[in-house]
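Feature request, filed as a ticket because there's no other form

It would be nice if the structure record came with a short human-readable summary line next to the tokens. Right now we just get the raw output. Example of a typical job, pasted below so the devs can see what we mean:
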Amino acid sequence: MGSDCLKVTKYFLFLFNLLFFILGAVILGFGVWILVDRSSFISVLQTSSESLKVGAYILIGVGAVTMLMGFLGCVGAVNEVRCLLGLYITCLLLILLAQVAAGLLIYFQRDALKAEVSIVVRDLIRDYDPDNQDKKNIQDAWDYVQERLTCCGWTGPQNWTENEILLNKSLTFYPCSCFNGSVDDLHKSGFCDIATNKTVSVADWPVYTKGCMSSVQSWLQDNLGIILGVCTGVAVIELLGMVLAISLCKNIHREEYSKVPK
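Raw output as currently delivered:
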């Protein structure tokens, strides 16, 4: 009976750690995505926000350690190595505490992140220059956001009136990525000419009237929710893994004690 219980516990722990390893790879993938993405709004943030870069490196570190612990847990469970299981339980507890702290930090920093996003975007719009190759990636990313989310500016297209280039052109140009028409071959970056000799205001631009703020904040909320959800799932698996590992250690000890000659 004890031997059967040991086998069941061992294989359950192996399966949990296999899932643990996979979720660790997912967390690591989130961190890498934040650092290398160049086609969505996340690239705007990671170019300008140090806190997001730090968060990405933390995710990569936690993901890598989680994968390592999943591997060690699998090896310890299959080979019934008590010292390895003990190390596994200790490290698992430390990782769990770190994840809880990181999750609380992300949750309580949401408003600060939103404020930081607002500052980053407004500075980007004000300094937008199609001829500036040093900022081409971040500017292309913002063009992509405006095009895909069918919005213009942060609170509205009037934000673009702060751009020095557009002011120098008397607002006879507008951001191409804000174009609200159906011309598929229109160049979706840089500035487009209205082609008129009349006095022009923002109201005359053929652009989306909705700002990007609500859509971007909703996008951030959804993605932070996904990351927190994955971390919560990993935490639950960690707790179950700790319970199974402790149970396995006790069963191994009981088996070894029963084999000792009396």
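Something like this underneath would help us a lot:
The first strand starts at residue 173 and ends at 175.
Strands lie at 173-175, 191-193.
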